[in-house]
Amino acid sequence: MSHYCDLAPGHPFHGPYHDREYGFPVADDTALFERLVLEINQAGLSWLTVLKKRDAFRRAFEGFAIERIAAYGEAEHERLLTDAGIIRNRLKVEATIHNAAVILGLQAEHGSFRAWLDHHHPLSHDDWVRLFRRTFRFTGPEIVKEFLMSTGYLSGAHRDDCPVHARILAAGPAWVQRF
């Protein structure tokens, strides 16, 4: 079975994501929200499709501005469903808007989305899935796993012998930190 570390290097879309983002700790709530939205939109599609549409997602969702997206009404919802640059799935669009509002609540209660994640870390994958399903929309086991691996909360983003793995370890992802 091929690993992402075998497929991504040198690829115009996968390569930069693999080398600079995948598995590295993410501190910024906007970047965490973007990653969650992208993982949700990947469901049923290839990651390459999502990466190719990433810039269009950023434009359509105003740079993933959480507060703005949480306030989206019917006009913005319809605008998104007619935007050919993004994945026009009603459930995924609704989940993005809903989840933005949820994150605002988490920020009010915990100070940030990241602080909420840190508050619950470490959990098993199954416990993370249960927590995400109680908290967010459109977050099944694979979406939760990829979101948490991609943001440094679960191990497994890279093989141990991948050159990027050492850089991730040096960045101090949550899955190696001892509490």
Automatic annotation (TrEMBL):
Domain of life: Bacteria
UniProt-listed Gene3D superfamilies: Hypothetical protein, domain 2
Protein name from the UniProt record: DNA-3-methyladenine glycosylase I
Species whose genome carries this gene: Halomonas flagellata
